[in-house]
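Support case: zinc ion complex. Customer-provided input:
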Amino acid sequence: MKTLLTLFVFIFLDKGHSTETHDQVLSITPTTQEHVDVLKNVSTQYKTALWQPVSPQYIKQDAQVHLFVPTNSSKTVKDLLQKHTIAHEVLLANTNELIEMQTRINNTDPRSSSTFYERYHSLEDIYEWINRTLQDNPGTVKVILIGSSYEKRPLYVLKLSLNDRPDKKAMWIDCGIHAREWISPAFCLWFVKNSLSFYKQNQDITKILDNMDVYILPVLNPDGYKYTWTMDRMWRKNRSVSKTSACIGVDLNRNFDANWCTEGASSEPCTEIYCGAFPESESESQAVADFLRSHKDSVQIYLSIHSYSQMLLFPYSCSLNEVENHRELLEMAQEAAQNIRRYYRNTYKYGSGAKTIYLAPGGSDDWAYNLGIKYSFTFELQDRGQYGFLLPPSHISRACNEALTAVKTIALKVIEKTKAKKISP
Ligand SMILES: [Zn+2]
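Agent response - structure generated as follows:
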């Protein structure tokens, strides 16, 4: 009886205090300016991680905010929301469990029916995969070392070249510029596997690889990616140490030389959108920029893979101006979105970055466009917030196939346009 009573009291107390024992993601929609101010304050003053929007400055009335709240900030944050009568909804009740699911000793459980490509992989595993891919495909795959990260990890680009046609054009794809967007490196691996398996099997893949080489950088930000596996799953930036601040990391997608560090980026090292000390101050962005500068005559398509929100974006993000071939890019993105809808019944928004989301200067896609790569896109893969950055491994194949549909649509269009130009100069 005594134990029963203790148990009862325990349950009662536990309910009364409603203390969280898990890290959570909350969805909060501020409906007044006061709410907006409180939320901006919460996301900067307490140990939380803003998932959406990327920075507190973009929090605005009637737009959903996704906020990661660790256990130890949970009570303070929820009390504050209650005090200001701001309603919230628990988007993910237990992110610890989801993270555990994504990292389970790389999921090598032999009973699991998922393949290598339907799991997330540690940085070490990805390096090993690069090596294996090279060994298994002599003659068609090359590995190019384009530079190294701040912490001296190698930046390897895979070059898929399925034939020796002269004057071949090329497509560039980079993944993992933002560390916590794990579906992005998973897509780069998926793309390589798909290309090598379906060349001469699938008509579209064959046509693309017959007409262009593909350069793939699976992890643009290896230090950050490693950090998300070992220390902080919510990390976004690289890991470079600032000369002026104790805060670590630069947002590599604000570090390129395209209206660098204007509205939409920050010169404050402690923010998630810190632009760095100067354009290309980071070894990762410099390596990519150097490589593309020296290959700009062959590279026709630039693709950068991110998550989440399901969008197909094109320049500009650094300005509200329209690019010279805006209509052309809009039509391509629209067709890609239509194909995704047709084959996978999923909705992707599309448009120029600045008008579809918000101003984001210093991005790699705008920089590549200004370099002369006129077909430049940024993809935001699944989902729209249900799992956000913690997309379960079981969703990888759908998410990657959707993105692959978009890549194919765009590459085939560009090939057609190039042929038409050759015939009628
Ligand atoms: Zn991103």
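Confidence is low (pLDDT under 50) at residues 1-17.

Case will auto-close in a few days if no follow-up is received.
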